[in-house]
Design goal:
The structure is a homodimer.
Chain A: H1 12-19, H2 23-31, H3 38-51, H4 57-64, E1 69-74, H5 83-95, E2 99-104, H6 112-120, E3 126-130, H7 136-145, E4 149-152, E5 162-165, H8 168-181, E6 186-191, H9 195-210, E7 214-220, H10 227-240, E8 245-249, H11 252-264, E9 273-276, H12 282-286, E10 293-296, H13 298-313, E11 321-323, E12 326-329
Parallel strand pairs in A: 1-2, 1-3, 3-4, 4-5, 5-11, 6-7, 6-8, 8-9
Antiparallel strand pairs in A: 10-12
Helix pairs in contact in A: 1-2, 1-3, 5-13, 6-7, 8-9, 10-11
Chain A binds a DNA duplex (16 and 16 nucleotides) through helix 2 and helix 4.
DNA sequence: TTGTAGGCGTTATCAG
DNA sequence: CTGATAACGCCTACAA
């Protein structure tokens, strides 16, 4: 923006002048071609081509009050976890003529309100937020902005607006049940301490204890969990454990670290160490040995979230909230 | 955007009215607080607070001709490869008050022009592009738009504008030299066929042949290369090879696949199979065994690219082109 | 330090 | 099917 030298950037009036039509007609050729005669459209398109006109969506957005932009907030792209949802979300919206503004929030509770304010100042037509627990201030910000919002990857009693998620406590409980069913009683928890990992942990611990098992160790690694820290935690765990253990990991990265250390130590899986990850990223399937993990349909979540927003943008005001199923994929580490 | 119900979204005139000042004063409080008296600023801030005013950057951008937005185009976020550059780029620009619009281009030659046109229609104040080889049309689009552009992660005789990259052929050559120096003569190439991977491959092959070695096998996997396809390629390679081989992989994902298969087959590394990856992602360091790879300072690239853009935006018009060093990190697979 | 006037480039709306 | 006119909400430039 802001050309300094040479001729200024081409605008709609330039195209209109060259084609011998009103600016509004150029606009129509671009946004509603069916409402322009074929010959006129042809002339206009020729002018656009020779002038190299690129429409100014900032001006268009101000006038139409539609930015044709959807913002998506995810914690990080350093993990594979959110790659699928983002990709599916983006693809679906692009096909509908929207662009996605991707914002990274990090895991610490870096002032989400400030980030939202920044985003909202661009007047997105819709918003995807990861997680479903927001401050009152954030919720007010969002409702005041009157923007459709989809929260994904979590669940809450009262979502801000629309929701495409699952219950992390249930995930933890499912892992516990799975381990218990396979006869494990001594369990360990290794992982990060972000909100959702904590929810999974809680579900796991509760269910283990209710089922007659016990938690023999807990090891924390900083979020987002990397392999190095997870291996370190695993080493500590293996040095102190006194018998077979089933380990509930907060992500596949963590699980990979645990499996790797177990293998290097010659521990048998699942006899000595059972492991379950979370995420079902390629590594869980294609490393050796592959390991058991929780699979969530990330692409489905992304696509559904996009469709919910599109429906709302089409004027369909029904509330939309779905829970996406998850499942444990057993791959030999129990 | 486009509220339908209830009161309309608060705008600058509402704040001005409540604070008893002109709209311009509110604008100043937000954008140049030092030019407003403390008391006035206080009143204005109070009004902003109670009304929940969120500035409209679309309107502001149209007026000021600055979008305060920088667009970044990367092939994918499915690989860890670009996570560091993106993160560093984003962090640096955020500190300077810019937001980053992340766009994914994919690897196929999906019409880059169309993507650029879309992006430019938002009038970004600057652009980061991955790769340095563009069509003439794309270059014209970019120069006509008069936007500062940094190309990263590659090099070219005539970059579009600024450049923070390295020569992929040199990378391939360095791997070849490394293998040759360790006494390898029979080499294989496994990997994707995207532009830059091909450049590395070319540098590798040339240097191997010039150095008296020979290429005994080449295996292709679709881009972006995943572990599964890489393992499959490795299996084929190992079934057909007749002696020790040094394998040049197009990425760490590929190398992980090769190392995994080699380990499962009981092949010794590096005696039977030497492996070198590209990217130095955590997996190369923290999987077992760790493997040799090429390390590039991704964060440095991202930060430098951001700084180049910021300098240009400050009005400094000097050309900026740097080559970022890379190095081979030997980790035991030779 | 604060205010006024005008315009940024496009599209909604209504008229022809 | 096409055009004229008036916003859209803010900021530049200038004036007081």
């Amino acid at each position: 923006m802001k050309p300094r030298t040479g001729r200024p950037v081409v605008k709609i009036t330039d195209v209109a002048a060259m084609a011998g039509v009103a600016p509004m007609t150029v606009s129509r050729v671009l946004n509603a071609p069916e409402r322009v005669s074929a010959e006129t459209a042809e002339r206009v398109r020729a002018a656009i081509e020779t002038l190299g006109y690129v429409p100014n969506l900032i001006a268009g957005g101000l006038s139409s009050r539609r930015s044709r932009m959807i913002a998506a907030v995810v914690p990080t792209i350093a993990s594979q976890l959110f790659a699928d949802p983002i990709q599916a979300f983006t693809d679906t919206l692009e096909r509908a003529g929207y662009q996605v503004l991707l914002a990274l929030s990090g895991y610490g509770s870096h002032d989400e309100d400030a980030l939202l304010r920044q985003i909202l100042s661009r007047r997105p037509d819709g918003l995807l937020l990861t997680g479903a627990h927001r401050s009152e201030a954030a919720r007010r910000l969002l409702t005041d902005a009157r923007v459709p919002v989809v929260e994904i990857w979590d669940t809450a009693e009262e979502p801000t607006d629309m929701l495409v998620g699952f219950d992390h406590r249930e995930v933890g409980a499912a892992i516990a049940t799975h381990f218990l069913r396979h006869g494990h009683t001594d369990m360990a928890v290794v992982g990060a301490r972000d909100v959702r990992a904590m929810a999974r942990r809680q579900g796991f611990v509760e269910t283990v204890e209710a089922g007659g098992g016990r938690i023999v160790a807990e090891h924390e690694v900083p979020a987002p969990a990397n392999i190095a820290n997870s291996r370190a935690a695993a080493r500590t765990l293996f040095e102190t454990m006194e018998g077979p253990v089933a380990v509930c990991c907060s992500s596949d990265n963590v699980a990979f670290g645990v499996v790797t250390e177990a293998r290097l130590r010659g521990l048998r899986m699942p006899e000595d160490v059972a492991v379950c990850g979370f995420g079902d990223i390629e590594l869980s399937r294609e490393s050796a040995p592959p390991f058991t993990t929780v699979s969530v349909d990330g692409m489905g979540i992304g696509r559904t979230a996009a469709e919910f927003l599109l429906a709302r943008l089409r004027g369909d005001d029904s509330a939309r909230r779905v829970h996406i199923p998850f499942r444990i994929v057993a791959r030999g580490t129990e």
